[in-house]
Write a structure and sequence with these properties.
mainly beta, 7-stranded mixed beta sheet, 4-stranded antiparallel beta sheet, 0% helix
Length: 118
């Protein structure tokens, strides 16, 4: 099993920045995909950004140029730096770690609230 603990959420004014962290522990061998997702009230959970073990990144269009995902392999931690935040970024943010080869695994954090005030 893999345990994920997120931190760094909070309340920020529009135009501000936050950095989310997701620290993994447990059986983390073979984890090859990590990502951040978000879910706003009344909406489906959506991908924000993801990163592979080789550090290839992918971003959802609404956050391109504003958010940066990164990883620290030594600390088993993934980060999401969010700049130029808008009220539309308000959501619960979840991190996800995946092992896409055998033995497959799909792990989620508990979520951290990000609220952007106008």
């Amino acid at each position: 099993q893999v345990q994920l603990v997120e931190s760094g959420g909070g309340l920020v004014q529009a135009g501000g920045s936050l950095r989310l962290s997701c620290a993994a522990s447990g059986t983390i061998f073979g984890i090859n995909a990590m990502g951040w997702y978000r879910q706003a009230p009344g909406k489906q959970r959506e991908l924000v950004a993801d990163i592979t073990a080789g550090s290839s990144t992918n971003y959802a269009d609404p956050v391109k140029g504003r958010f940066t995902i990164s990883r620290d392999g030594a600390k088993n931690t993934v980060y999401l730096l969010m700049n130029s935040l808008t009220p539309e970024d308000t959501a619960v943010y979840y991190c996800r770690f995946q092992r896409t080869s055998w033995p497959r695994g799909d792990y989620w954090g508990q979520g951290t609230q990000v609220t952007v005030s106008s």
